[in-house]
Amino acid sequence: MNSQESTSLPNVDVAKTVTAVANLTNPHAKRIIDRSRSISDTFVKKIIAQSVFTWEGRKPAPALDDNFNFQGTDLDLLSFMVPMMVRGAVIEIPEYQNRRKVVRREGERKIGASQFGNITGLTSNADVHSFSVRIFDRSIVVTDADTEKESVGAHRNYMLVDCDGHWYDGWNKIVWDPTRKENAFLADNKLWTGNSVVFQHYVHPNRKQSIFGAPYLLLKMLAERLTDEATFYRKEVKRLEALGFSLPKGEKKSYVPPISEGATKKVQVQVMETALDGADFIGEYAQVENSDAGLLKAYRHQKHLTYTLKPLVQFVVRADEVAYFKYGCSDDFVASWIQGITWKDGYRVPRGKVDWKRLEFSPLLSLRYRVKEVTQTVSAS
């Protein structure tokens, strides 16, 4: 995070929760920026839970209007799928075309054309506006290289939203068996169209307001904290390995790069990049002990931060940001509870050459964004 230059308090009337975060008096914000205080799984999930991502309690528009003409519900796909992920629902994607290059992994073979298995996660891309569902795909058979024993299932990501923030057209439906509670919600709100539910949005347009709320600001801080802490413990791993300590055999599996197949092409997509200024980290992380056990602790901790906790936080952050990108940034929308402040054009970080739009919540915390064009490599087919 970049240090703030401003020292004057703008004449604003901000919701109390936002004010507490912006002034760093919020207890969660104080914990996040203090490296000497631990960040537990429970704490991360508590912060995520403040950003409501569910269908429960919602009253979406019905699929058909009063004249029985199809209008499509305004319930968004991601809000419906988050609870499905939590319960580990089994889904099937009958048809899917890879957006990226087709990847073949040694010791794996695909059975049939369909993809099916338990949802294990919903993922987002940190650089572009794509979202994917992660399943333990039971259409894949894996052969162990040492024992030659076969098992069924491997983790795979299937893109739902393309790099540019539009629906990805490489899939057309997801098949699942709704629970009684899910079915009652869909029936009571008249969301069924025959035996299907058709989603107009993957993220609700009203979610554009989220980037002005305390939950988003806390999650944005938390994402940076998790990255910062993981970086420290990766350095701890290197330090202890240099001292001659080693991990248990089999703890760090050798990486066998997958084989990519098929022609590719370059595409240009517009994305929104955001950054927080202020709320600089304080304190220091605790070093691990100089031992094999210390090395193992550091190695597992940085992996957990990077591959388990960070994706959970990033998913909600990116959903909030893409909602603003799609439905808010064209007219510099500001939420109704933010009064007296607007986006300011032409802001540059010290010694920077890039212009940003910047909104100052307090002398201690500002949010800035810019829309830029990036290049992505995708399948040519």
List the helices and strands and how they pair.
Layout: H1 16-22, H2 27-33, H3 41-49, H4 77-86, E1 90-93, E2 102-104, E3 108-110, E4 115-124, E5 131-143, E6 150-161, E7 175-176, H5 180-188, H6 214-242, E8 259-261, E9 264-278, H7 292-327, E10 344-347, E11 356-362, E12 365-379
Antiparallel strand pairs: 1-4, 1-7, 2-8, 3-5, 4-5, 5-6, 9-12, 10-11, 11-12
Helix pairs in contact: 2-6, 3-7, 6-7
Question: What do these coordinates show?
Answer:
- It contains seven helices and twelve strands.
- The chain is of the alpha+beta class.
- The protein folds into two domains: 16-52 and 208-379, no CATH class; 77-203, no CATH class.
- The chain starts with 15 loop residues before the first helix and ends with a strand.
- Residues 1-14 have low confidence and may be disordered.
Characteristic terms for this protein:
alpha+beta, disordered N terminus, 2 domains, four-stranded antiparallel sheet, 7 helices, single chain, six-stranded antiparallel sheet, 381 residues, globular
For the report, how would you describe the main beta sheet? 6 strands, antiparallel
User: What is the general shape?
Assistant: globular
What is the gyration radius calculated from CA atoms?
Answer: 23 Å
Low-confidence stretches: 1-14
First-last Cα distance: 40 Å
Beta strand count: 12
Q: So how many helices?
A: 7
**Average pLDDT level:** 90
Helix content: 25-40%
Strand content: 15-25%
Which structural category fits the helices and strands? alpha+beta
Count of the domains: 2
